[in-house]
């Protein structure tokens, strides 16, 4: 407890608590005079043992006793019945809040009346609609079987589809919409009512049941084959410039490989040059697009132009110059299947020691491993050749030959590339030039502009129909 002196402020600032005799205004009445003389708030921490202290202690005791006497009593609640009958339990559950994990049957429920009859068997849905996806290396009939189609019917559908398009030509990832119909009982699979899927960009196959039989129909889809032409300045990076112009990465790689047969990408193509590529581009009337391979690859360096057209001769596709001269390059094959135990270049001699020039490649392989020629050519030497042992030399033409021992000419075989050239003549050359001219007449971005125009027209038709 605080002593009286703590509350009796003098001249100090701030708020202070005054004794009752100082807080009451002066009054000439006897009652007011008595209140001023009697100190109702006794400080039990001061003047211990005095009459004032004993009066305060007696007052405090009386107040505590009065509080205890007037306090309410404590009485136990009546005992709740531990068991409820079925009607009481249903009433309690109807008014309770139950967690979802325990059923959550809050609120009143209407019990079934005599008009409700239990079903001996639940009815099935009249049809089931689902989607199945053809996986990589998956069988067409197998996909249908996994969707719930009977094996015999799955084989029948596969045969019907194969009559319209080779099943192996359907790309992996193709979704198929399947509708299964009503079955007579639960012991047999559901019959197929419909099967539809996009076989190609220009073809949709639909199978539907009519008069109890499945009928297949090939729906042709109109496709615009206008190729996509992309031109632009090479700048600091041909790849980044082509990507910024909208060319896909796969097409750019194809373009670089084509140009690389004629030019060095790093040395021969300046930043001021212009790249020109034409890519196969197909757009279906339904809106889907498909990009194919690069058809034309060109580099313009001022007045000098490098023009390459992809052309197929004898079943092989290669790049031909505008003059009709084709060229393909490739690396030599490894003569045996094994690991390179010693490469071309300076090495420590295994017998004499010291650093010596090794003018060949040593390939570690098992005894008796067959040796094949690294490239097509003519054998011009075969036999013993000093310390080389059995020695075979093949002439590949163009001043290039290989020897299967120590070579006579000191050239790293992995650095040699063979070159083959083909020349188009006659009607083939005329058809080649006509195709090149028609491609060069395609305007850059024409395919994309046509696509945007058709999409805008379709949007206007849709909007007009919705406003009407």
Provide the descriptors you would attach to this structure in a database record.
468 residues, alpha+beta, Nuclear Transport Factor 2, Chain: A, 4 domains, six-stranded antiparallel beta sheet, five-stranded antiparallel beta sheet, 11 helices, 26% helix, disordered N terminus, disordered C terminus
Account of the 3D structure:
The structure is a single chain. This protein is an alpha+beta fold and 468 residues long. The chain has four domains: 4-59, no CATH class; 128-220, Nuclear Transport Factor 2, Chain: A (Roll), CATH 3.10.450; 228-331 and 440-447, Nuclear Transport Factor 2, Chain: A (Roll), CATH 3.10.450; 339-415, Glucose Permease (Domain IIA) (Distorted Sandwich). Helices cover 26% and strands 28% of the residues. It has eleven helices and 20 strands. Strands 6, 7, 8, 9, 10 and 11 form a six-stranded antiparallel β-sheet that branches. Strand 3 and strand 4 form a beta hairpin. Helix 6 runs antiparallel to helix 7 (151-162). The chain is elongated, with a radius of gyration of 49 Å. The model is unreliable at 1-24 and 464-468 (pLDDT under 50).
Average pLDDT over all residues: 79
Low confidence ranges:
1-24, 464-468
The number of distinct structural domains comes to: 4
Quote the distance from N terminus to C terminus: 89 Å
Strand content: 25-35%
Give a quick account of the main beta sheet: strands, pairing sense, barrel closure. Answer: 6 strands, antiparallel
Question: If you consult CATH, what is the topology of the largest domain?
Answer: Nuclear Transport Factor 2, Chain: A
Shape: elongated
Q: State the helical fraction.
A: 25-40%
